[in-house]
Design brief:
mainly alpha
């Protein structure tokens, strides 16, 4: 079987890559209905964590390019432009708007770019490990799938989505933990407030009933002495009997 010349391979790849870019370009100007479907499709919860993916821009796009794409998308999915499907359009519009807010801010955009950088580094490491294994198995000549630029880009894309998903799960975990901590703290505060209220009420009742207790004690003491006195006064010792001889 004759091998394909490298020039032919390059031309074939260029044609393929051009076709892929044409498809991406076509998809980037989907109709309002298609854009809403794209943003609300099954699994979109994790896809939409990546603001670059939502706005369909490359991670190295300028802020001006991102802004243009945001405006175009926000108009397409705006509820006023999709009256027949305004509820879902509103959801899609909020997703687009949230993504723009993330990328508009320099700090949050940098964090997203850091995710891309980490995804690239992890992918490169994975490829290097795979290359070592191929070398060990004597299959290095076969090449690995990620040697294809399109497949390499896809591998980076998959890793990027995974990292965004991991970040979201971590955020949710921390949020749940903080919520539970706040709940425990609030319950402890309520318990303390109830205890203080009980002690305050008890002290108030104790003070209010002080005179009653004093009067009761005086009455008790007075009654006890009278009874004791009556017993003593009423006691008559027996008369001594004369001795009989």
């Amino acid at each position: 079987m004759s091998s394909i010349p490298s020039t032919a391979k390059a031309e074939s790849f260029d044609d393929f890559y051009t076709e892929v870019k044409e498809i991406e370009k076509r998809d980037s100007v989907l109709t309002p209905k298609q854009q809403i479907e794209r943003l609300l499709r099954p699994g979109s919860t994790y896809f939409n964590l990546n603001p670059f993916e939502v706005l369909q821009v490359e991670c190295d796009a300028t802020i001006e390019e991102i802004k243009k794409k945001y405006r175009r998308l926000s108009i397409l999915v705006h509820p006023d432009k999709n009256i027949d499907d305004s509820e879902r359009a509103q959801q899609a519009f909020e997703i687009v708007n949230r993504s723009w807010k993330i990328l508009e801010n320099e700090d949050t955009r940098k964090k997203c770019l850091d995710v891309y950088q980490e995804a690239k580094e992890r992918t490169d490491h994975m490829i290097e490990q795979k290359r070592k294994k191929f070398r060990k198995d004597g299959r290095l000549g076969e090449g690995i799938p990620e040697d294809d630029p399109v497949k390499y880009k896809h591998a980076v894309y998959v890793m990027t989505m995974k990292l965004f998903a991991d970040m979201e799960r971590k955020r949710q975990h921390l949020e749940t933990r903080d919520m539970e901590e706040r709940k425990r703290k609030r319950e402890a505060e309520i318990e303390q407030e109830e205890q203080m209220s009980f002690e305050k009420e008890w002290a108030k009742n104790f003070e209010e009933s002080r005179q009653t207790r004093v009067d009761s004690w005086k009455t008790f003491q007075s009654g006890g002495k009278e009874k004791k006195k009556k017993k003593i006064m009423g006691f008559k010792p027996p008369k001594p009997k004369p001795e009989s001889r």
